[in-house]
Specification:
mainly alpha; Multidrug-efflux Transporter Regulator, Chain: A, Domain 2; Arc Repressor Mutant, subunit A; 2 domains; 3-stranded antiparallel beta sheet; two-stranded antiparallel ribbon; 9 helices; 49% helix; elongated
Length: 197
């Protein structure tokens, strides 16, 4: 299975801090693949879908955060053996039964849907907004979708406003925008030193 999720995407989908993913990479539990990301045109570390399952389990069962790295590697190896197929329950050690379908099944399904929808609906065109990622076939930047959702609109509001765009496109655009922050100086807050005086 190809590594298709960035560190931030794994953290967002698994609902864990990005720092937890970074720490797993530093300790050798998870091995990223470096390559050029097509949408942002930057060299990025990518992780397999297995990483979402691993973090869904570790994030769900807080006592797993305290086990030694060697045990975490065994857990990751057991998840990796499933190679993206349907999850099955595993016995990590005697007395420690993990029901992976119950714990991580939904997040694995969400990650698969995001990967497919990101490929299907998100693109960039240098002729549109200087190459800012957009929803395919439109001039709607992913960051404006995320901004509207952050300011109180719902996915249903967006679907009502743009009837030709499927709901999945807006969900993928929101996740992409949240996990790939815009580069440069933040617009909000402007120049705080001007108002300080």
């Amino acid at each position: 299975m190809a590594a298709e999720l960035t560190v931030n995407e794994v953290a967002h989908i698994a609902e864990v801090p990005s720092r937890s993913v970074e720490k797993a990479i530093e300790t050798g539990i998870i091995k990223p693949v470096k390559r050029l990301e097509m949408l942002t045109k930057t060299r990025t570390r990518f992780l397999n879908l297995d990483a979402v399952c691993y973090f869904a389990v570790v994030g769900h069962l807080s006592f797993l955060k305290e086990i030694p790295v060697s045990r975490k590697k065994i857990l990751m190896k057991a998840i990796r053996k499933m190679a993206g197929t349907n999850l099955v329950p595993i016995d990590l050690e005697p007395g420690l039964h993990l029901d992976l379908p119950m714990i991580a099944g939904t997040k694995q399904k969400n990650a698969r849907a995001y990967i497919a929808n990101k490929k299907r609906y998100i693109t960039r065109d240098p002729e549109i907004f200087g190459g800012v990622p957009i929803i395919k076939g439109t001039r709607i930047p992913v960051y404006s979708v995320s901004g509207r959702l952050a300011n109180g609109d719902t996915i249903n509001d967006l679907v009502d406003d743009y009837r030709s765009i499927p709901r999945e496109a807006f969900i993928a655009a929101d996740i992409f925008a949240r996990t790939h922050p815009e580069r440069g100086r933040p617009v909000a807050g402007g120049r705080p030193w001007k108002t300080a005086g």
